[in-house]
Amino acid sequence: MAKDKNLFVCQSCGAAYPKWQGRCDACGEWNTLTEETPVQRGPGPAAKAGGGRRVEFVGLKGHSAPPPRIPTGIAELDRVLGGGLVAASAILVGGDPGIGKSTILLQAAARVASAGRRVLYVSGEEAVEQVRLRAARLGLTDSPMALAAATSLRDIIASLEQESDAALVVIDSIQTVWLDALDSAPGTVAQVRACAAELIRLAKARGFAIVLVGHVTKEGTLAGPRVLEHMVDATLYFEGDRGHQFRILRAVKNRFGATDEIGVFEMTGTGLVEVANPSALFLAERRGNVSGSAVFAGIEGTRPVLVEVQALLSPSSGGSPRRQVVGWDSGRLSMLMAVLESRCGLSLGQNDVYLNIAGGLRIAEPAADLAVAAALVSAATDRPTDPDRVYFGEVGLSGEVRQVAQAEARLREAAKLGFGRATLPRRVARGGKAPSAPDGIALTETGHMADLVAVFAEQTVKPRRAGA
Ligand code: TYD
Ligand code: MG
């Protein structure tokens, strides 16, 4: 019988090739291919040969109860999960090393255990002593949760099989777990995939929730296993930068709840603390009366969040100008700048442009266009935006300002935080009902970006154009 041929598997996306090559054709990454022995998978040719059992097809109607949930006791985490951990489900928690994954999971695990459920925490990265020290620092040592340091999948599975009433199992991290039957090193796609599949299978069979911690590479993908995202029921990412104290937990996939829901935490000396009012936190360091700053009234999941958008223009020192974006899409910035130049006659051309979403939040909503535009125009004209005003609205290629969802929720949040004015798209009556606005907030409806630019135009100080 022919020996199984080894495959070369991309550690970034999981694509497999018969021969080594420098670049993965599937995801375009360089030097990500490593040699692996293929894993036996699927039912194989036997399934084709008959002998299967007839599956039963049913109608769409019928009663199914919502899945039982285990609240973690951390409201922000429960919100992101869609109301707590679902029994017999698998959750992947991803994020950069040092962002706080182990901290939040230890806090959650301890609370679930304190509520009377059996919780097992398997640490593959830190020794028992290290985890105990952290628990002491977090004041969790009274919690009855069970802790072990292990990395061998065989040992972990054998131990879990002895547990009859486990409610939650945390594996920190999946990249350290390995199966000796596989030749590949721990952390490779083959290992991570095989170990995760085995753990998830056991979780489904035994009815406990399993949380897998996964590190993210600097490119922003889970090291090796994008494949993991398909295997789990929910994927949560921990965002934020280690220089800031804010941490944002975001659901990017959730079979049992809404995605794009965020939980906001603050890293303190005693662990991660929930932030109930993120807008106040994101705006806390805002300084009035500086140009290039505008407040965006955004929506994250079901929750309105106000953030400060900061723009800085500086004359480019030759060559092609820099465009540096933190927390937003750089393609979208280029588009906005093109619209400002060709539709509104603002010249930004030879300047380096820096854009930053303050506080470490990453914004994906097109509704931020108007706030970004306001920050850019303010920076270009060196005139501060009205400090009492929030902005939201999507901008189209002809410079038109388009409607965005949930205008009222955005306005309510702005009013709640003491803002008195808002610049927003023209609103239309829906279903014969005129759009309403919260008391105390004056609305400036804007149909075109040129109107926004005109507000700043009076004292226009055109930025110096290098080489012009
Ligand atoms: P950790 O949870 O170990 O990160 P991860 O598991 O994602 O790699 O977080 C470690 C960081 O958090 C570390 O830089 C120290 C900081 N930290 C605090 O600031 N306060 C605390 O109470 C704890 C436990 C950690
Ligand atoms: Mg950790």
Automatic annotation (TrEMBL):
<keyword id="KW-0378">Hydrolase</keyword>
<keyword id="KW-0547">Nucleotide-binding</keyword>
<feature type="domain" description="RecA family profile 1">
    <location>
        <begin position="66"/>
        <end position="216"/>
    </location>
</feature>
<feature type="region of interest" description="Lon-protease-like">
    <location>
        <begin position="352"/>
        <end position="468"/>
    </location>
</feature>
<keyword id="KW-0234">DNA repair</keyword>
<keyword id="KW-0863">Zinc-finger</keyword>
<dbReference type="InterPro" id="IPR020588">
    <property type="entry name" value="RecA_ATP-bd"/>
</dbReference>
<keyword id="KW-0227">DNA damage</keyword>
<comment type="function">
    <text>DNA-dependent ATPase involved in processing of recombination intermediates, plays a role in repairing DNA breaks. Stimulates the branch migration of RecA-mediated strand transfer reactions, allowing the 3' invading strand to extend heteroduplex DNA faster. Binds ssDNA in the presence of ADP but not other nucleotides, has ATPase activity that is stimulated by ssDNA and various branched DNA structures, but inhibited by SSB. Does not have RecA's homology-searching function.</text>
</comment>
<comment type="function">
    <text>Plays a role in repairing double-strand DNA breaks, probably involving stabilizing or processing branched DNA or blocked replication forks.</text>
</comment>
<dbReference type="Pfam" id="PF18073">
    <property type="entry name" value="Zn_ribbon_LapB"/>
</dbReference>
<keyword id="KW-0862">Zinc</keyword>
<keyword id="KW-0479">Metal-binding</keyword>
<feature type="short sequence motif" description="RadA KNRFG motif">
    <location>
        <begin position="253"/>
        <end position="257"/>
    </location>
</feature>
<dbReference type="Pfam" id="PF13481">
    <property type="entry name" value="AAA_25"/>
</dbReference>
<keyword id="KW-0238">DNA-binding</keyword>
<keyword id="KW-0067">ATP-binding</keyword>
<keyword id="KW-0346">Stress response</keyword>
<comment type="similarity">
    <text>Belongs to the RecA family. RadA subfamily.</text>
</comment>
<dbReference type="InterPro" id="IPR027417">
    <property type="entry name" value="P-loop_NTPase"/>
</dbReference>
<feature type="binding site">
    <location>
        <begin position="95"/>
        <end position="102"/>
    </location>
    <ligand>
        <name>ATP</name>
    </ligand>
</feature>
<dbReference type="Pfam" id="PF13541">
    <property type="entry name" value="ChlI"/>
</dbReference>
<dbReference type="InterPro" id="IPR004504">
    <property type="entry name" value="DNA_repair_RadA"/>
</dbReference>
<dbReference type="InterPro" id="IPR020568">
    <property type="entry name" value="Ribosomal_Su5_D2-typ_SF"/>
</dbReference>
<dbReference type="InterPro" id="IPR003593">
    <property type="entry name" value="AAA+_ATPase"/>
</dbReference>
<dbReference type="InterPro" id="IPR014721">
    <property type="entry name" value="Ribsml_uS5_D2-typ_fold_subgr"/>
</dbReference>
<dbReference type="InterPro" id="IPR041166">
    <property type="entry name" value="Rubredoxin_2"/>
</dbReference>
<protein>
    <recommendedName>
        <fullName>DNA repair protein RadA</fullName>
    </recommendedName>
</protein>
